[in-house]
Specification:
By secondary structure, this protein is an alpha+beta fold. It has helices at about 70-80, 85-105, 155-165, 220-230, 250-260, 300-305, 340-345, 350-360; strands spanning about 5-10, 20, 25-35, 40-45, 50-60, 60-70, 115-120, 120-125, 135-140, 165-170, 180, 240-250, 265-275, 280-290, 290-295, 315-320, 325-330, 335-340, 365. The longest helix is centred in the N-terminal third of the chain and has 20 residues, at about 85-105.
């Protein structure tokens, strides 16, 4: 059994980092969270461990926070979800956050994970955290939310990390599993290959998720339940399982030009060319009066269709005045654990082991260190 490792976290900040020493660690006065999404904001966060300058800044990342893995897991658990959520759900989240982070520390997985493949009439691209250089993970949704010490606050998130210390889920070969998760699967989980490289994992299967459906709760009970599991900025998004959105033709045409240097003329149709097992669109054709351009995978589609990232790529598009009306499902990529569904399982009395078995079938718990 090994010793607890350290993890290096690249901190996203609004400009040059505003740092100060405080009693409990380091105050970052201008940390950014939710970058590129509708809840993007600047916060003040206190982090533990040590701060180190990044020799070659990468976009909004200028400094690296080096700290013990367990301290990181405690913060992530409280940053991703409300620390007052059911303890069995938070324990499951601590295990998967630790598992995913451990893979990054050890360098498992794809070595050329972020890619863009262009052809004459389309592009296939995806983003992965292994594209980072000089640190293991970043502090925002691109990896896992890490919003500092105050996020756990000595509450159930801290206890969840303590009770599961050193535990990860492992695949059939004994390797730490690639424990992906998203906010709300919309009722059906998705395959890994729909969102990233073509190498699927047996335990990241596509399956119906009845736990994602909260219609068995009365409206007041549902609101109370969501209030205990979601962070304040997530609660503003209440239509995450089934939703509608509008995409303007001219706005979409401008984004297509800006991102890919392509002009298809007046846009006439959005046509799904490929869908994943859940129904998420993995390749979309944007058709216009002067041509057509196809795009995949799921995140690229979501970023093209909305400036602040569409909730998911599981939708049907219908013509509307000056654009298209989208009727969609889910929030996020839908791979692995569904945070809404997992919390619902805990609310109904399921243990963290039952939650992990449901979302990562075929995996087992493995103790890395005491």
């Amino acid at each position: 059994m090994t010793q607890e490792p350290e993890i290096r976290v690249g901190l996203l900040t609004d400009g040059i980092p505003e740092t100060a020493h405080v009693h409990s660690g380091h105050l970052i006065g201008n940390m950014l969270i939710g970058c590129g999404f509708h809840w993007q904001m600047k916060i003040a966060a206190i982090v533990g461990g040590e701060l180190e300058p990044l020799s070659s800044p990468q976009g909004k990342i200028h400094i690296v926070n080096r700290l013990p893995l367990e301290q990181y897991v405690e913060s992530v658990t409280g940053s991703e979800m409300n620390p007052s959520a059911p303890i069995e759900f938070l324990k499951a989240h601590a295990v998967i956050s630790r598992s995913w982070a451990h893979r990054k520390i050890k360098g498992y997985g794809e070595k050329t994970p972020s890619a863009a493949r262009f052809c004459g009439c389309g592009v296939t691209e995806w983003e992965e955290s292994d594209s980072h250089t000089g640190f293991d993970v970043c502090s925002d949704d691109h990896c896992q939310r890490y919003q500092g010490i105050h996020s756990s606050g000595g509450t159930a998130a801290s206890e969840a990390a303590r009770q599961t210390r050193g535990l990860v889920i492992a695949d059939s070969s004994g390797e730490t599993a690639d424990a992906r998760f998203s906010k709300c699967c919309g009722g059906y989980t998705e395959l890994f290959s729909s969102c990233w490289s073509e190498h699927d994992r047996d335990y990241l299967c596509s399956k119906p998720d009845p736990w994602c459906n909260l219609t068995d709760m009365e409206e007041s009970g549902r609101a109370k339940f969501l209030g205990t599991i979601l962070k304040n900025f997530d609660r503003d998004t209440t239509d995450f399982r089934d939703w509608t959105a509008f995409v303007g033709k001219e706005e979409l045409r401008k984004r297509l030009k800006t991102r890919y240097g392509v002009d298809v003329g007046d846009i006439t149709r959005l046509t799904p060319l490929e869908r994943g097992a859940s129904g998420r669109i993995t390749r979309l054709a944007v058709e216009g009066a002067e041509g057509s351009f196809s795009i995949g995978k799921t995140l690229a589609i979501r970023r093209l269709l909305a400036a602040d990232c569409l909730k998911s790529s599981w939708f049907d598009a219908y013509p509307a005045q000056y654009g298209f009306r989208l009727e969609g499902h889910g929030w996020g990529h839908g791979v692995g654990l569904c945070q809404i569904g997992a919390a619902h399982m805990a609310y109904k009395g399921k243990s963290f082991r039952e939650i992990l078995d449901f979302y990562y079938p075929g995996t087992r718990l493995m103790k890395l260190y005491e």
